[in-house]
Amino acid sequence: xxxxxxxxxxxxxxxxxxxxxxxxxxxxxxxxxxxxxxxxxxxxxxxxxxxxxxxxxxxxxxxxxxxxxxx
Length: 71
Fold this sequence. Notes:
Helix content: over 70%
Structural class: mainly alpha
Oligomer: single chain
Order of helices and strands: HH
Largest sheet: none
């Protein structure tokens, strides 16, 4: 059970750093082996963030327009 908890914690740390677009550094040197994976996926994460940002902006503008029509 402790091994499973530790494994899930390391996976969560990796996903968090990937989402933040940062590599592991001096604070967690034991995680530096994951940096090549993070670097290899970083461009895809940037594209994903761009896509959902544009989608959010579209829905925000669309619903703002609708709200103005209703007022």
